[in-house]
Amino acid sequence: MIKEEITFKPHGRFLHKRNIVAFFTVIVIFGVTILIGYFDKDIELDPILWYLMAAIFPTILVGWIIFNVLYFKSIQYKIEEHEIVIQRGVLHKKVKVVPFQSITNITVSRDPIDRIFYIGSVKIQTAGYSGEKTPELKIEGITNYNEIYDKVMISVKLVSRITPLKAEEKLPVEVLSTDIIEIRKAILQEFIEIKELIGKRKH
Questions:
Q1: Does residue 195 sit within a domain?
Q2: Is the distance from CB of 6 to CB of 79 less than 8 angstroms?
Q3: What is the extent of the structural domain holding 83?
Q4: In the prediction, which pLDDT does 53 show?
Q5: Can you tell me the distance from the alpha carbon of 27 to that of 115, in angstroms, rounded to the nearest whole number?
Q6: Has this prediction a pTM greater than 0.85?
C-alpha cells in the first residue's frame, strides 16, 4: 500500500483541453444558428437579433472559460494509504472517498485530444458501480497516468491479497468443504436407519 500520502492536481494542459472544447462547441452552435437563419426562408430575423447573437455567444464562451479556470483550480487528487480522495467543485465542493478494498476495476483512458496534449485519465469503479457505464471516480488530466494506475493497482492487490483476474479467465468452481460433506453423510445415514426401523416394524 501507499506508505506516504500523494497529493497532486491535473496538468495545465487539461485546462487547455477544456477551453478548446468550449471554444469549438460555441463556434459550432453559433455557426449552425447562422446557417439555419440564412438558408431557412421562413425565418426572418431582425438585424438587431443578429447583433445580439454576435454578442451573446462570445459572452457564453468567456463565461465558460472562467468556469473552466475555477473548476481546474478546485480539483485535487489524493492517494492515501487505504483510500483515494478526489475533491472538485466550483459552487459546491464535492469530496469523494473510495477505499482500495472496494475497487473492482481500474482503466486508463485517453481520447484524441488527450493524445494531442499528452495527458490521460485513470477511471475507477467500485462494487456498487460495476454495472454502470460511467466510472465512480475519474482522475483526469494527468501526464503520469500510467504511474498513478500502477500505484492504485498495487494498493488494490495488497489490500485484497489477490491478483485481479483477466477478462478471459473464469473463477474456479468452489469445492464443498469437508464439514458439509460429513453433514450430508450423517443425514443420509439417519435416513437409512429410519428406513430399516420402519421395515422391521412392518415385519
A1: no
A2: yes
A3: 6-160
A4: 74
A5: 23
A6: no
Residue 133 resides in a domain = yes
Per-residue CA distances from 39 to 33, 48, 97 (Å)? 10, 18, 52
Q: Is residue 149 part of a domain?
A: yes
Q: What does the alpha-carbon distance between residue 106 and residue 127 come to, in Å, rounded to a whole number?
A: 12
Q: Is residue 117 part of a domain?
A: yes
Instruction: Give the Cα separation of 46 and 65 in Å (integer).
Output: 29
Residue with cell 451573446: 56
Cell numbers for 4: 506516504
| 12-58 pLDDT, tens digit each | 999 999 999 999 999 998 888 777 766 666 656 667 767 777 788 88
- What is the count of structural domains for the chain? 1
What is the CATH number for 23? 2.30.29
pLDDT given at position 166: 42
